[in-house]
Every structure is written in C-alpha cells, then in structure tokens.
Specification:
Elements lengths: L3 E5 L5 H10 L8 H9 L4 E7 L2 E10 L4 E8 L8 H13 L2 E5 L6 H12 L3 E2 L4 E3 L9 E7 L6 H15 L6
Length: 176
C-alpha cells in the first residue's frame, strides 16, 4: 500500500504528541497547546503519514507566499530506514513545489551530518548565508542552524526574503 498523507485539523492524536516529544529536544519545540492551536487555526498544517493503515510519522509545515516551510518532520521509529522519509519528501515536493527547512550545521554531530546528507541526496541545498532559528519558547536561546531548500533560489536577496517570511509568520518576529 502506498504512503498516504492524512491532513489533521483538530483532535491531534496522542501518537503525534509522543513522536513530537521523542523526536525533538524541548528547545526546538513549541509548547504543545500552542502547536495544537496553530493547527486548529489552520496557520500551521499537519500531515499524518500512514503506511499500510499504520502510523508512520508526521509533517508540520507552514504554507507561505511561494514556498512551504517544514517546521518538523518525524518518522515513527519502527519505520525509520525504510525509505519513508524519502517518499514523504518527494510526495510533498510534488504537491507543494518549493520547500524550505532548517537543519543543524553538519559540524554539530553525526546525526546532523546524516540529516543534511539525506536532504542533499534529495537535491536540497544549503543557503550559503548565516541563519539562526529563533527561540520556540520564551527564554530559549537562538540556535545556529542552516536553511535548506529544493529550488534554484540561492541569492542573498532570496535568502533574506525567505528568512524574513519565516521569522514573521512562523516565529512571529518583526522584519529585519
């Protein structure tokens, strides 16, 4: 059976909360009640991944002006290494076109290197400009990250446009 995306707009299943909390450190997550509210308001979209009628993971993403910004993508531990992530990213690109996402710098650790290699194998490139992820919760630090994308838009002007839109909409910050 093919991988399916099931949109979720309310009553987020506990399995998504559990995978969200187990996949991302607290400093990279919003409080769950805020995450749920953003989904219910349809500002942040949620796709549940289903394979063979079983939960396979999720994607939280922001539909922005001419690209989508993936905020969180997680694959269920029982499905990792099976190509689900690759299939999901290809399906999402077919549906949405340009995708932008954040990753840790490769020099941080081996898992970061693997994540970057995963996206590069799919044709994603890092913007060659400095990027910091704003805090997801008050009191958390700004994080040195990389912005990656699947388009040809690699200029400083495009980077600034994309970064500012992410900052304003996903992180509710004023334009820089």
């Amino acid at each position: 059976m093919p991988l399916q995306f099931v949109p979720v707009y309310s009553n987020l299943p506990d399995r998504i909360l559990e995978l969200y909390e187990n996949s991302f450190p607290v400093y990279e997550r919003r409080p769950w009640n805020e995450q749920v509210l953003l989904v219910e308001e349809k500002k942040l979209l949620l796709l549940e991944m289903v394979l063979d009628n079983a939960f396979a993971g999720f994607i939280f993403y922001w539909p922005l002006s001419d690209f989508i910004f993936i905020e969180h993508l997680a694959i269920h531990p029982g499905c990792r290494g099976s190509g689900i992530g690759t299939r999901a990213m290809k399906m999402l690109a077919e549906r949405s076109g340009t995708i932008v996402l954040e990753t840790e710098p490769a020099l941080q650790n081996a898992p970061a290197k693997r994540r970057i290699q995963f996206y590069e194998n799919l044709g994603y490139k890092k913007f060659p400009f400095s990027y910091q992820q704003p805090p997801s919760q008050p009191g958390n630090p700004w994080l040195n990250m990389c912005l990656m994308h699947n388009s040809q838009r690699n200029t400083a002007a495009e980077f600034e446009k994309i970064k500012n839109e992410i900052y304003q909409i996903a992180y509710k910050l004023p334009a820089t």
